[in-house]
Amino acid sequence: MPPPADIVKVAIEWPGAYPKLMEIDQKKPLSAIIKEVCDGWSLTNHEHFALQHADSSNFYITEKNRNEIKNGTILRLTTSPAQNAQQLHERIQSSSMDAKLEALKDLASLSRDVTFAQEFINLDGISLLTQMVESGTERYQKLQKIMKPCFGDMLSFTLTAFVELMDHGIVSWDTFSVAFIKKIASFVNKSAIDISILQRSLAILESMVLNSHDLYQKVAQEITIGQLIPHLQGSDQEIQTYTIAVINALFLKAPDERRQEMANILAQKQLRSIILTHVIRAQRAINNEMAHQLYVLQVLTFNLLEDRMMTKMDPQDQAQRDIIFELRRIAFDAESEPNNSSGSMEKRKSMYTRDYKKLGFINHVNPAMDFTQTPPGMLALDNMLYFAKHHQDAYIRIVLENSSREDKHECPFGRSSIELTKMLCEILKVGELPSETCNDFHPMFFTHDRSFEEFFCICIQLLNKTWKEMRATSEDFNKVMQVVKEQVMRALTTKPSSLDQFKSKLQNLSYTEILKIRQSERMNQEDFQSRPILELKEKIQPEILELIKQQRLNRLVEGTCFRKLNARRRQDKFWYCRLSPNHKVLHYGDLEESPQGEVPHDSLQDKLPVADIKAVVTGKDCPHMKEKGALKQNKEVLELAFSILYDSNCQLNFIAPDKHEYCIWTDGLNALLGKDMMSDLTRNDLDTLLSMEIKLRLLDLENIQIPDAPPPIPKEPSNYDFVYDCN
Question: How many domains does the chain have?
Answer without folding.
Answer: 4
